[in-house]
Design goal:
heterodimer; A: mainly beta; B: Immunoglobulin-like; seven-stranded mixed sheet; four-stranded antiparallel sheet; 11 strands; 51% strand; globular
């Protein structure tokens, strides 16, 4: 049972354009969401997070949008750069239940930004 | 800034052997998580510790055990290794459960 889903295994965009990565979740107990960037054979690197009390969080070129009613979040990268090419994981946790915040990951989306 | 340190980075073991992976969390982080990532898969939660006590358990085989020590470092012990245990093992730490910062991982290869 995949509680966090990233239905697009890959995405290719041109440098300078917007990259939009999508994530859906099924567990209504999730109230904290994160995006990680991962290079092969390295640990996931935290990018940006959002709490369920917000619907948008912005940090530089990265913006995360949360639609709680649709159980959907997205990561926007503007403008996209070739160095953004990596695998992006969406993750969710349920803080309210105080289960220590273990993260449930999506399957990942491989982003390729072409020069 | 100090990050999560994992050792070793690479480990090769034979079937039925034992492996011990170590994790040193970010200072003042109270929670440690262990994840396993197989080839082409997303990271799967194994186990977590909050203030040195096991706090949650995921899909961790009975052959695996883990603990967190008084200095907050954690060790994942894996016995009777199987070929299917070959994977990247990540440790992460967080403060009060908000987000998690990951180490570089240990690549375990069982031959």
């Amino acid at each position: 049972d995949q509680q966090v889903k990233q239905n697009s295994p890959s995405l290719s965009v041109q440098e300078g354009r917007i990259s939009i990565l999508n994530c859906d979740y099924t567990n209504s107990m999730f109230d904290y969401f994160l995006w990680y960037k991962k290079y092969p054979a390295e640990g996931p690197t935290f990018l940006i997070s959002i709490s369920s009390i917000k619907d948008k969080n912005e940090d530089g070129r990265f913006t995360v949008f949360l639609n709680k009613s649709a159980k959907h979040l997205s990561l926007h990268i503007v403008p996209s750069q070739p160095g953004d090419s990596a695998v992006y994981f969406c993750a969710a946790s349920a803080q309210r239940s105080r289960n220590t915040g273990k993260l449930i990951f999506g399957q990942g989306t491989t982003l390729q930004v072409k020069p | 800034a100090a990050g999560v340190i994992q050792s070793p980075r690479h480990l090769i073991k034979e079937k039925r052997e034992t492996a011990t992976l170590k994790c040193y969390p970010i200072p003042r982080h109270d929670t440690v998580y262990w994840y396993q990532q197989g080839p082409g898969q997303d990271p799967q939660f194994l186990i977590s510790f909050y203030e040195k006590m096991q706090s949650d358990k995921g899909s961790i085989p009975d052959r695996f055990s883990a603990q967190q020590f008084s200095d907050y470092h954690s060790e994942l012990n894996m016995s009777s290794l199987e070929l299917g245990d070959s994977a990247l093992y990540f440790c992460a730490s967080s403060a009060r459960g908000f987000g998690a910062f990951f180490g570089q991982g240990t690549r375990l290869t069982v031959v």
